[in-house]
């Protein structure tokens, strides 16, 4: 009796914690992280899933029996988890992928916790109420914000467009999933009303009311997504093409790419590597980077490969195979084919599976699909483990399995907790660095970023940003030296140290994410800023840019950047060639024509330069600033030529164009004579403490 009471207490505690989580999940956000909307939700998911599975293990030890609930979704979810984990281990950007996959592990742990802690009808109803309650609060919040009734004290939340999800599309998907579940729970009571029975009862009031509230919230969110904050969704043609290219054209890892994809959560690398040049013809999105594909299923194919899509398809099959058909499962299956899912949306998908499981388990006709099973340790002649139905009368059964299960759970929690804790703490520190940078506190920014890297060095973005911070501090220090004066030995050493750390951090970024075009672009910018200051900086800049182009070969802006380096070096023929490639990839790219015109003008081909300028003028008719700039340059060049010129081709008016300008580095260190010797970057590096003297703010 005491063991049963202990087990019941553990279950009640677990259900309460899970209910509180379901209530808070959609509305939680915190500005102390680099992503105020996603990371706090994922952190809460990790904490609750760990507590939940630990309570399941404690209950097993308390009762002396390892008893679990079986559902039709267990095996498919397990296979999907294994496929995702393997894809992360085989990914070229391994750490990026593993970091992205950890929340999925938490989601699977949450599923296991919910189905094994909520064993009674009362517990199931409580969790259903909390899930719908959280979604209803989100709906009310969106409705008030839409009508400019702001209830939160934060200045950034006082906007019609603000959402705790950070994205109207993500909120739309979450509310769609919640609404389908609310309708599923409401249908029996709505049928009663249709048959003339007006006695819904207390248990039916909340599902019906939440359906109405969620329907209103979904409508408001849809209006915002269509009119005020249109989400940028990758066209299906590009999503389809990049997905199949990822599993069939990944040179050097054909088998791994086919089976495991590029790595869970690394769709950006598939997008940059495999998008076609025709993507540049879309004026609204040609210059955007997409971290998600057109739909979750296409993203899954690209990032987790054939094994991932097969395991998830098996899950969908199990979902639609249940009889009678369950509305939220059908809606979920449709949405994964139509829309891109965030990690939180995928978590909501898993929550729906668990809530459907515990709800259906209370129905007599469904108990065969959602039954409890006791795992026993038996003799080797009969196998190691045995599965059987629950036997409440069993006494003095061996406790080896419960304690073994508890040990495995504790090891899993400690392993995940160690790395997740360090990740979250480093993210908190890095967010403080971002705040310090916004306040122009150079020294504080440096120290905080260095600390964040020391805590969690596996995050590529830390190194990429830290490399720019070092360069900016070095540039600030070098620029503060009066012309004609010599810097002190300490100041000179500080500059050299910052520059070398900038290079090393950029290289560490590419070592962590070698298939990331953004990492190589950052490295190229570092070296380009050192042209004239460091030996061979121009060659390093060219090599890094070429590597970036190899990973994003149809991006016209990268060819403009490479042409800009050649232009900066006075190699005008090479610059002209790269600018022409950019124009070939995007025939209405005004800035490519502009840079081509400048290269031709420097080479002395004034007539053709004027043709390019006039082409630019045709493309920037709607931009007053750019039009004034090019008109001024056309007049100056015409005066230099002293005659008219051939008319340029009219390509029509271009849209969504960057400002006109000769491509040049964002920062440029003063020229050094002779140039400073800069060694090849080191891959493994620990940032030094703040150099002495401390860089000026």
Write the layout of secondary structure elements.
Blueprint: H1 2-24, H2 39-63, E1 66-70, H3 74-89, H4 94-117, H5 121-146, H6 168-194, H7 202-228, H8 236-248, H9 254-260, H10 267-274, H11 296-321, H12 327-338, H13 343-360, E2 371-377, E3 385-388, H14 400-438, H15 442-455, H16 460-479, H17 489-512, H18 517-529, H19 537-551, H20 556-569, H21 572-585, H22 590-603, H23 606-619, H24 624-641
Antiparallel strand pairs: 1-2, 2-3
Helix pairs in contact: 1-2, 1-5, 2-4, 2-14, 3-4, 3-11, 4-13, 5-6, 5-7, 6-7, 6-12, 6-13, 8-10, 8-11, 9-11, 11-12, 14-15, 15-16, 16-17, 16-18, 17-18, 18-19, 19-20, 20-21, 20-22, 21-22, 22-23, 23-24
Number of helices: 24
Task: Briefly note the structural class of the backbone.
Answer: mainly alpha
How many strands, what sense, and barrel or not for the largest sheet? 3 strands, antiparallel
Radius of gyration: 30 Å
Q: What is the helix/strand order?
A: HHEHHHHHHHHHHHEEHHHHHHHHHHH
Shape annotation: elongated
Name the helicity range: 55-70%
Distance between the termini: 68 Å
Biggest sheet strand line-up:
1-2-3
**Uncertain segments:** 681-686, 691-697
Estimated share of beta-strand residues: under 5%
Kindly state the number of beta strands. 3
Mean pLDDT comes to 87
The gist of it:
With 697 residues, the chain is an all-alpha fold.
Structural commentary:
- With 697 residues, this protein is an all-alpha fold.
- The protein has a domain at 2-376 and 396-413.
- It has 24 helices and three strands.
- A three-stranded antiparallel beta sheet has the order 1-2-3.
- A hairpin with a 7-residue loop joins β2 and β3 (385-388).
- The longest helix is centred in the middle third of the chain and has 39 residues, at 400-438.
